[in-house]
Amino acid sequence: GAVVSQHPSWVICKSGTSVKIECRSLDFQATTMFWYRQFPKQSLMLMATSNEGSKATYEQGVEKDKFLINHASLTLSTLTVTSAHPEDSSFYICSARDPAGLETQYFGPGTRLLVL
Amino acid sequence: AQTVTQSQPEMSVQEAETVTLSCTYDTSESDYYLFWYKQPPSRQMILVIRQEAYKQQNATENRFSVNFQKAAKSFSLKISDSQLGDAAMYFCASGGSNYKLTFGKGTLLTVNP
Q1: Between chains, do A104 and B35 touch, taking CB under 8 Å as contact?
Q2: Using one digit for the tens of pLDDT, what is the confidence trace for A56-94?
Q3: Which among A43, A104, A110 has CB closest to B50?
Q4: For tag attachment on chain B, is the N or C end more exposed, with fewer CB atoms within 10 Å?
């Protein structure tokens, strides 16, 4: 199956700093990627849809200036958490849509963010 | 808008036995896809099985099969010959024309040796 990588897998940062998370599709080109947030023992919450070469589409209630998304190539999308605060601590997961795979989304392994 | 409901927060099964996880959905789209994903303790989301809504035949992947009842908007997952490695959180999801996935709240499956 299609492989999606995510980096870093773990990050600890100080309050007020920015953190960048990378999501890469390794063996297919993904025109569309998605960013999710997952709290412990809960389901995935879609934050935004990342489209290659255009602006991301954010879900209601997600601050676009807080969570900056860039999809500069067909294999890379980045999520930058700006001026991070402890309440931003969470598990962030990306996925990439494989257009040749019956609209299936393949997921990265996730990034655990802890803001101190 | 789409909604996905998983009514079983937790399920357990004995090793080698069969278990069925329930999922119902609602969608206004005529063309949509349904998925089951597995999330083990590592938290990596793994595709288990997918079903195109326009296909009447139920999808199967080795020990995993679905019972897709389109009129009833039901999409249950059957795991046969359960193995210890099947223990995980299972999420049902639906996707439509905007490519977004709507997830259910998940069912935590425990496999007892």
Answers
A1: yes
A2: 999 999 999 999 999 989 899 999 999 999 999 999 999
A3: A104
A4: C
